[in-house]
Amino acid sequence: MLLLQLTILSSLPAKGQRVPRTVASPKDTVTITQDTTVALAAPKGDIETTIKYSARDSIQFEVDRKVVHLYGDAKINYGTMSLAAAYISIDYDKNMLTATTLPDSTGKEVGVPVFADGGETYAAKKIAYNYKTKKGRISEVVTQQGEGYIHSEVVKKNEENEIFGLHNKYTTCNLEHPHFYINATRIKAIPNDKVMSGPFNLVIADIPTPLGFLFGLFPTPKNNKRASGVIIPQFGESRLRGFSLTGGGYYLALNDYIGTRITGDIYSLGGYKVNIDNTYVKRYSYQGTFGFSYDYFKNDEADIAEQSRSTDQRTQLPPSTRSFWINWSHSPVQKPGRGRFNASVNAGSSLYQRLSYTSQSNYLAPNFNSSVSYQKNFQNTPFSFDIRVNQSQQNGAAMMRQQQQDSTKSAKNVGVMNFVLPDLNFAMTQIGIYETLTGRVPTGQWYENFTFGYSVNARNEVSNRFQAQQLSGVRPEFLAGGTTQDTVIALNPANASEIWENGQRSAVHNFQIGLGNYKVMRYFNLTPTVSYGETWLDKKFSYRFDEESKKVVVDTANFGRVYEYSAGASLNTTVYGTAYVKGKRVEAIRHIIRPSIAYRYRPDFGNEDQFGFYQTVQVDTSDTGAPVYRTLPRFARGVPSPGLQSGLSFSLDNNLEMKVKSKNDTTGTGKNFEKVSLIDNLRLSTFYNFAADSFNLSPVTLSMNTRVLKTFNINFNSTFDPYQTVVDAEGRSRRINKYMLSGSGFRPARLTQANFGLTASLNPEARRTPAATPNNLPSLQPELDPLVPNYVDFNIPWTMNLDYTVYYTAATTATDRSNLIQTVGFDGSVNVTEKWKVGYFATYNISDNNLANARLDIYRDLHCWEMSISWIPFGFQRGYNFTINARSSLLRDLRLTRNRTGLNYR
């Protein structure tokens, strides 16, 4: 049989060759019934390579017609093309492959033809393909192009692998009968590039809608490759700006490394906004984003009110204004021996965030900070340096809220900018002095433990705010030339010299001196310490009282030096105590105590004759004519606090844990144990200053933190005052230099402040197995709207996070009451069904009986669509949002949104 088969195959001619008459008559056929795979060597002619074909049932040859019929799981491989179907015919005369289904014993069509070529796969009821021209015709086919599926009545494929469809349905739903589709008579698809259509309309649940356009263009880049395209705007409404079209523009994919998104907003009440966002990435080197926004806010009503109302009333209505904002984030990949350049910039006009805030955190933030830095560690050396430029500015929205609450504040405070140009750090890590000087390996001698390190921080701080009170303890009206309120000047070249003079330049030197660690009496660790620091400043003040003007005159020198040093030693040990219980599960309880005492000496840097950091000067004259003196610092910053310190600090740390039998002990011997922490740390600390003339003992602090049942985290902090208090004639409480223990009863101290926090994270799935971050998360956009949900995970049945906080402060006067604040917060989610998910968040102030913040989110999985409902009942972002949209990122602009937010709430 095999010999006969090879003889027949070798006799099949290529196109243009005659068939020998002696082979068979036109009606003669040869049938092979066993499952056979045949390879036909490529002869000279139209066949370019070997055709391999096989069939499970039979292979039938019509020699005269030069046709091969394959029945039952027929398969053909020809170069990069493959074809599988219930029935396939090969017509060598016409260079055609034809594949169809066949009915089974019940009459059901089986063996749907599947055609693959060049990475593209098609399934259809009938496929005809010319392997010479590489053109094909496919009937009732479904093809996948990127994220979309094309259902076509008839498809033709040309030699460039382009697809032309007739009577088409384009959708991102992967069902055989899609929930929605774009109905188009003609479609052209260029693989790994785009899908184009003529006039189309949207069909939802088999119901045609009038939504459509004259043409359609859907990008389908290969391997999620970025592609340029139009960004459809969204319709919205704002209380201050009216109706709007927002977010419309164009995305420009310059190359594989840089992409630019240019969008704009336009408003019915006037005004517009332009946004430019860039992303860039270089693999194994760096990545970053850069954005620029320009906003023209027009408010004719506020402009009119600005001319007629008082200053306080004008600040409540933002007038027409132009503002901008810059965002820049750059982060490199750390490489050994290479410098590291970082950038995090958030800067712009002061009122931009008030008018165009994109999140609750941006609106409530008191200020914005920017930093650009370069840092480098020198390999095989202890040296490193870091140079950076910092900028900070107050949030215009926050400042407006403060000014509305305090009528004494002026709108001139808006626009405060603080710069550090530059901030230079140079450091040398601690090195062994003996090993560095001698070059020898330490042998264990005590003097070989000495180490030395050094660091310097040089900075130039500049601000356009001129503070009213430059000197501590002196009212502005007592200073010659002093101002009574802060002033803010504009940032422009004309004011550059004045702003520079208002700046402060300093260099802070720190010397790290290590004297080693030593064992004392086998169980104690002794650590002596010495510290020294020095600060260079560009301004040093000298004071004199002018009898004529009755004010303090300040003379300024161009350089000053401040230094501070101290010495001490600490002694600590660890004590272990174990109590054996031998209970049913508890084997033992262990208590670990870590006592520590430390002595520190620091001279009185307020001594004017010895150090000269302070100066006592007359600042005023009393009603009786007697001079009033006050001690003032001679430097604007970095001055050590006055007072001699010679004191002993004490701390006691405790840890309590149990040794219990493991629940996972399968041996039955009871020898498998595990540790359970009862108290992670309980700390008691205080300080006693021998040199103080009164109140030698500092307040006692008591803190504790632990974790219970691997779920609840408990934190506790408190402060106790060991001194008594008395009430003066005005009803105010005043401390006296008398211990509480000397009073009646046993009361060592009184509680002045306490803070208790309890947090818990409840997640049944996470407790069963370690939580893992999903590796298929979609690419999330930055937070643009607090009412629009982000990624939703439907696999977790429910989660809940609890936060309970109690804050207590004791009364300071006889008439006041102690202040007790209790808040409880909770957030989480519940999967009501497989397709429904509810998320919630709320914070409740128990003391004020007030719900401080709340939010409710509802999600619905609609297969190829999704629905979300969010509701914020109160607050400046109160409102709701209802959105239903297609899940595919390709058709993410196909959505319906209804909302009322803080911007358009009426």
Automatic annotation (TrEMBL):
Superkingdom, taxonomy of origin: Bacteria
Domain LPS-assembly protein LptD central: 195-723
UniProt cross-references to InterPro entries, sorted A to Z: LptD, LptD_2
PANTHER family to which the protein is assigned, alphabetical: LPS-ASSEMBLY PROTEIN, LPS-ASSEMBLY PROTEIN LPTD
Record protein name field: LPS assembly protein LptD
Source organism: Pontibacter ruber
